[in-house]
């Protein structure tokens, strides 16, 4: 599912999706892990499952993430086919050292518990 940003409202929705702390953390987590289930995201963010699902639904509606099913779990991942503006923002989250430091500092204890498991899945 690819969202085409063809109006000011579309672009506004994109920036709103990127202007939320939890959604930014989810995007960062997905760039680091490749994919994650709601339970893993919930564990890292420390928020209730419905909150994680709501954020993931918003990101999915905006065309930033998608999911696939493995057994009883839905795993979310960042879509590879993105408009350039989205690729740029995701690249910033992944590659700018200052941003990486901020996210890792904030999420380190929880994210570090999941990283060895995530790398083993790749």
What do you see in this structure?
With 122 residues, the protein is mainly α. It has one domain (8-114): Orthogonal Bundle (Arc Repressor Mutant, subunit A), CATH 1.10.10. Helix content is 67%, strand content 11%. It has six helices and three strands, in the order H-H-E-H-H-E-E-H-H. It has a three-stranded antiparallel sheet. Helix 3 packs across helix 6. It is globular and about 40 Å long.
Total helix count? 6
Shape descriptor? globular
**SSE topology string:** HHEHHEEHH
Strand order of the largest sheet: 1-3-2
CATH architecture: Orthogonal Bundle
Total strand segments: 3
In whole angstroms, how far apart are the ends? 23 Å
Low-confidence stretches: none
Helix content: 55-70%
- How many domains make up the coordinates? 1
Range of strand content: 5-15%
SS-based structural class?
A: mainly alpha
Q: What is the CA-atom radius of gyration, in angstroms?
A: 14 Å
User: Largest sheet at a glance?
Assistant: 3 strands, antiparallel
CATH superfamily: Winged helix-like DNA-binding domain superfamily/Winged helix DNA-binding domain
Instruction: Give the CATH level 1 class.
Output: Mainly Alpha
Which topology does CATH recognise?
A: Arc Repressor Mutant, subunit A
Q: Roughly what is the average pLDDT, rounded to an integer?
A: 82
